[in-house]
Amino acid sequence: MPSSRNNQIDGKKQSRQDWDDGAASIKNTRPALLCFSHLRWDFVHQRPQHLLSRSASDRRVFFVEEPIFDNGAMRLDLSERRGGLQVVVPHLPQGLHSDVAVTAILKQMMQRLLQHNGITEYVCWYYTPMAVSFTSDLEPLAVIYDCMDELSAFKGAPSNLGELEQQLFKKADLVFTGGQSLFESKRPHHHSVYAFPSSIDREHFMTARNMTVDPDEQKDIPHPRLGFFGVIDERLDVELLDAIARARPEWHFIMLGPVAKIDPGTLPRRLNIHYLGKRNYQELPTYIAGWDVALLLFAQNEATRFISPTKTPEYLAAGKRVISTPIVDVMRPYGELGLVNIAATPAEFIEEIEKALSAKTDGDDWLRRVDGFLSSSSWDETWALMSRLIDETVDRNQQLRRAVRVPAGHKSSVPVAGTFVRSAPESSA
Fold first, then answer.
1. What pLDDT digit, counting tens, does each position of 245-277 carry?
2. Helix and strand totals (H; E) in the chain
3. Please, which of 89, 108, 215, 296 could form a disulfide with 77 given CB 3.0 to 4.6 Å?
4. Nearest-10 Cα torsion for 400, 387, 109, 409
5. DSSP for 239-286?
6. What is the distance between the alpha carbons of residues 166 and 163, in angstroms, rounded to a whole number?
7. Does one domain contain both 144 and 53?
8. pLDDT, tens digit (0-9, with 9 covering 90-100), for 72-99
9. Are 185 and 206 within one domain?
10. What DSSP character marks residue 220?
11. How far apart are CA 316 and CA 334, in angstroms?
12. How confident is residue 400, by pLDDT bands cut at 50, 70 and 90?
């Protein structure tokens, strides 16, 4: 890792040298991409990381996280990730409770971000409608809403999220959805909606098929092993997990992932349930390789109504039989094609797991059908299609702006409180 170095700008003096680090890696003059997300870049590796790391290969990408409220100085922190992507974290005073004040400061910080990085042409990419409130002054060449979840149905969702999403629909040129059911839900609200269901790094997860060495935390857990990885939150059907584990104490359940938004004390605790915590994305195949069956233990509630689990094709690429609750975007197409077995009750799950444990996997018709299906799905292909749509939209909008003599980009001389910090590059998880 490069040596640590921080550069600060105090809001008065401006030095271009401080902002030239990494400029040599910019491969062309395409508009920068400003992404506004409710997720932390280093939380778990999922859709935003897959797509935006690919975007960073040919344009500057700034991933703007939600603000952190602490007792430090008011500032923007920038830290570089692999490929040159910049993670931007606003820091605001702990006692700042006024939404109006927060919005005003964040607006100024966004102008500062543009000014000190020399950004005049850019695209805004939203994962959260909540960012609409502090980005209303921006003048992007295009606005993209990548709707990966129905956030309004999640635990603790802001009461005004639905209203802000309607504003985002009015601003957006393109709306992408993370699954077919979300596409069907959002299509009536916008004229240009595209379904981009969860894709996969096939080669990464297919390595699990040939791995024989277990990670230390898993090697002493007896077989049969039934595994799940992902964020453990209100979407997990804890009653279902507990019922199956109670009925089959000889089966061992491996749960990988961080616990979020729920009290860890509410999780079922049994000798055959093993919570191994968060693991690096690169390590996942080493764990899955040692499982006998993979599980999608999602509850049937509002938070799961529109989900399209990325882990579904990842489990399959690893060569594992998969049992899932009746999630719409799993039943269509995986269940309909016979690639994933669907079960709703503990008894049905136990029956399907027993079938999966006795089924052949290597070289059988099921695995050939899995590989045939997955051959047409990759994050590279997904990003290539998205990028083409964005480029076409930018070109069209630029032509319209030239026709009406509206300057591209946004320039502002609004003074900004606080400092602006660029941290040393870090490797991503």
1. 999 999 999 999 999 989 999 999 999 999 999
2. 12, 17
3. 89
4. -20
5. HHHHHHHHH-TTSEEEEES-B-SS-GGGS---TTEEEEE---GGGHHH
6. 5
7. yes
8. 789 999 999 988 999 999 999 988 878 8
9. no
10. T
11. 10
12. confident
Q: Could you please report the per-residue DSSP string of 288-354?
A: HTT-SEEEE-B-SSGGGTT---THHHHHHHTT--EEE---HHHIIIIITTTSSEE--SHHHHHHHHH
Q: Is the pTM of this model over 0.90?
A: no
Give the rounded percent of residues in the chain with a pLDDT score beyond 90.
73
My answer on whether 341 and 325 are in the same domain is yes
**Considering the domain boundaries, does residue 429 fall inside one?**
no
Q: Which domain holds residue 224?
A: 202-374
What's the mean pLDDT when you consider all of the chain?
A: 87
State which amino acid sits at residue 218: Q
Residues 6 or more apart from 376 whose CB is under 8 A from it? none
Query: Which structure tokens are listed for 345?
Result: 């009750």
If asked whether residues 162 and 309 sit together in one domain, one would say no
Look at residue 262 and tell me if it is in a domain.
yes
Question: Which residue type does 28 have?
Answer: N
Please state at what angle helix 379-404 crosses helix 47-55, rounded to 10 degrees.
Answer: 60
308 closest CA partner among 339, 281, 331: 331
